[in-house]
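Course assignment 3, question 2. Fill in each field.
Student: A.L.
Task: Predict the tertiary structure for the chain below.
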Amino acid sequence: MQVVFLGTPELAVPTLRLLAAQPGMRPAAVFTQPPARRSRRGHLEPSPVGEAARRLGLEVHDVESVNSGPALDRLRAIAPDVIVVVAFGQILKRAVLQIPRHGCINLHPSLLPRYRGAAPIQRAVMDGIVESGITVMRLVRKLDAGPILMQRPWRMDPEKTAEELLAEAGQTGAAMMLETLRAIETIRPVEQDDALTSLAPMLTRQDGELDFTRAAVELHNRVRAVQPWPRASCMLELAGGNKRLIVHRSSLAAGSGEAGVVLGVDQAGIVVACGDGALRIAHAQLEGKPALPARDVANGLRLKPGARLAAYRHG
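Answer field:
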């Protein structure tokens, strides 16, 4: 089977590696997003897929758009039987969709038609979803609306972050994609029920804002959902000046009080009253400082019960 692979982030790497190891399915070419500033180091870095593909000795194209120009010409020249798509980051137009005889096959980490869009795991975590799923579907021009080729339930551990769950979905989805491709001639596609659709738009910086007037369980899910980006944050109101606190890990805690007030500091972290219940900040960092157990951050600031935390508002 002549395969072309389209993908960009770490989520897509397990599928790429698995296909590259299969006789008869090693991708003839890999298309990915161009190098970008992906860390605080500031310089341009290749996408995880681009880096992995080069290490595998595959033909790699870093493209602003696969829908026109040399990228589209190369796709037509390869004339693949199937195009495998995993979190590519570009909407495919008719010119690409009509090239492969088996279509463009996409891995989507949700139970479609639930959570169509760019951030299905993050949005599901934010909503407190535990029982989810992974879908392999054929792409059409409408966003994530194509017929389902394979779908399986997947339990999202309620204590894992979105980053950890994305890694898990990447491994599980890779095996599903391979199974789908091996059975592509005999699978009967199932059309999605558009009436059941929900959307999962891309995250924004505002999604990381912790508003302590909300319920503790909602904030805990938000902390999990926005890892590794944009990360959850709040503002510590201190006598010497306010400081932004970035929250990496949290848990639910016993206690109640005025929203945003520190109820106590213990070995497990900083306990903060919320609109309903209390949140324990377990792992955090002051902006510009290293991440630490939250109790160490509190000790360094001599944080006491009664201190206040407020939402950090992005401009």
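Instructor remarks: The mean pLDDT is 96. The helical segments are 13-20, 48-55, 69-78, 94-97, 120-126, 162-182, 216-225, 294-301.
Grade: pending
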